[in-house]
């Protein structure tokens, strides 16, 4: 059984189909049809809901963290122990919520189909903002599409709703909601079981290892932003899933003198602060990683584990010399991330083995790390080419070189010939030009609807030139903002 709060209503579910999304649960099982399906792939934001989760801050104070999610990509099993808020829950005692009222007064709704998603994104923004901030508003709404092109009044609604915000019914009930969430906090393995399909929800790494050993055919579910597409887009059935999002050990970020250890189930939005502090370009790229809804849900381990050749984080992590800790039963092994990827969607992971955490070396003064993403749109788009460069230059000579790319091969991959040209050489334009030529030996990219093979290779070479120019003239730093 799993338990969660539907606003303030306790829901206990056991026999549901584990393949059921939160979107369809709301619309078909509880009659809340305000949440809309626009794309069923996490691109349009019409299905946005907000999930509240009990958190404890550094001072030991308990509070509820509210986050926007795409309900079309969220399986119901991931709600275990949390609070689900949909657009119907905002109106209180006959009065519109302040974010709804702002949309009305600022004329932010046109055809109205996308409006519930915008309202929920604004609600989450208001809960996480103390004052109007245009940059945060754009980030919060980047995952919501308005086909009537009504963004200006919607942004005005964002400003109004965050300006001088007043306590609402959720603030008034916070102590009560905290108590109710504590009462339903999972204490044992949860399960949804419809007879022919099941999803298991472990709480510890040991339980996860045992379950995965018992069900090696199971699909591991973390954020689900990739896995759920098999259900929503390809109409496949997932007979057995194991949801790892309640394993607290795999959601930790620990900083040591020489490394950062990030649990594989850590949401990308939670990785931001730690990675940005060490590598500002990593943080900039995370701002362009899909949408806020996806970053609130998708995990660093999942972005690695799905082995996509165009995943944004692997090239950066490879260039930084990151490692993954793989767990199987009581056995663990540490593998360089570049050795984890073998071929298209083929990895070094063994049966019943899973990524437990990612180890990222901390920055040193000698490193020159930069990352670049080339895509058709600035926000919420997949890379055509993603490049990460990490050189160590001592006394004008390149003593170490790690150059990694996504979108250039069947796997995220280092540019070995390019690195060989650079090593031991002075860091000047002539050497960089030879390194650019060597990229043609490292990669034979494919053509697809995102870019031709010629464009990809030329972009990779130009990004290396861009990297060199930026290091020579530090005031010129467009970095990851490059796009087609």
TrEMBL record:
The gene is xdhA. Residues 1-90 form the 2Fe-2S ferredoxin-type domain. Keywords: FAD, Flavoprotein, Iron, Metal-binding, Oxidoreductase. This is Xanthine dehydrogenase small subunit. It comes from the Bacteria. Residues 192-365 form the FAD-binding PCMH-type domain. The keyword Flavoprotein applies. The keyword Coiled coil does not apply. It comes from Pseudomonas putida (Arthrobacter siderocapsulatus). InterPro entries: 2Fe-2S-bd, 2Fe-2S-bd_dom_sf, 2Fe-2S_ferredoxin-like_sf, 2Fe-2S_ferredoxin-type, 2Fe2S_fd_BS, Ald_Oxase/xanthine_DH-like, Beta-grasp_dom_sf, CO_DH_flav_C. The lineage of its organism: Bacteria, Pseudomonadati, Pseudomonadota, Gammaproteobacteria, Pseudomonadales. GO terms for molecular function: 2 iron, 2 sulfur cluster binding; FAD binding; iron ion binding; xanthine dehydrogenase activity. Pfam families: CO_deh_flav_C, FAD_binding_5, Fer2, Fer2_2.
């Amino acid at each position: 059984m799993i338990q969660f709060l539907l606003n303030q209503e306790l829901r206990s579910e056991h026999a549901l189909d584990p393949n059921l999304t939160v979107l369809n649960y709301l619309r078909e099982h509880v009659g809340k049809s305000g949440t809309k399906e626009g794309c069923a792939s996490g691109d349009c934001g019409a299905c946005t809901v907000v999930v509240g989760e009990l958190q404890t801050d550094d001072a030991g104070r308990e509070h509820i963290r509210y986050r926007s999610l795409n309900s079309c990509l969220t399986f119901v099993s991931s709600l275990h122990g949390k609070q689900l808020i949909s657009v119907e829950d905002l109106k209180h005692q006959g009065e519109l919520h302040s974010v709804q009222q702002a949309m009305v007064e600022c004329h932010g709704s046109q055809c109205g189909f996308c409006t519930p998603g915008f309202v929920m994104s604004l609600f989450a923004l208001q809960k996480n903002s103390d004052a109007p901030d245009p940059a945060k508003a754009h980030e919060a709404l980047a995952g919501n599409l308005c086909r009537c092109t009504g963004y200006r009044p919607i942004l005005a609604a964002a400003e109004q709703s965050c300006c001088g915000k007043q306590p609402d019914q959720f603030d008034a009930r916070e102590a009560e909601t905290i108590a109710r969430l504590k009462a339903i906090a999972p204490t044992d393995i949860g399960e949804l079981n419809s007879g022919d399909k099941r999803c298991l929800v472990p709480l510890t790494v040991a339980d996860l290892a045992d379950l995965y050993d018992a069900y090696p055919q199971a699909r591991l579910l973390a954020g689900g932003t990739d896995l759920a597409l098999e259900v929503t887009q390809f109409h496949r059935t997932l007979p057995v899933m194991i949801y790892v999002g309640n394993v607290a050990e795999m959601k930790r970020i620990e900083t040591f003198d020489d490394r950062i250890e990030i649990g594989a189930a850590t949401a990308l939005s939670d990785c931001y602060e730690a990675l940005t502090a060490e590598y500002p370009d990593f943080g900039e790229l995370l701002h362009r990683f899909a949408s806020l809804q996806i970053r609130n849900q998708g995990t660093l381990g999942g972005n690695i584990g799905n082995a996509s050749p165009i995943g944004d984080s692997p090239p950066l992590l490879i260039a930084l010399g990151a490692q993954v800790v793989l767990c199987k039963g009581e056995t663990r092994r540490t593998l360089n991330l570049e050795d984890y990827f073998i071929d298209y969607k083929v990895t070094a992971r063994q049966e019943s083995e899973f990524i437990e955490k990612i180890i990222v070396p901390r920055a040193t003064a000698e490193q020159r790390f930069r990352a670049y993403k080339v895509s058709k749109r600035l926000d919420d788009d997949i890379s055509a080419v993603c490049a990460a460069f990490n050189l160590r230059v001592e006394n004008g000579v390149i003593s170490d070189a790690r150059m990694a790319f996504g979108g250039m091969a069947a796997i995220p991959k280092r540019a070995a010939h390019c690195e060989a040209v650079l090593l031991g050489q002075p860091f000047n334009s002539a050497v960089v030009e030879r390194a650019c030529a060597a990229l043609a030996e490292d990669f034979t990219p494919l053509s697809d609807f995102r870019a031709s093979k010629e464009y990809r290779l030329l972009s990779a070479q130009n990004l290396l030139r861009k990297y060199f120019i930026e290091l020579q003239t530090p005031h010129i730093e467009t970095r990851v903002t490059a796009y087609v």
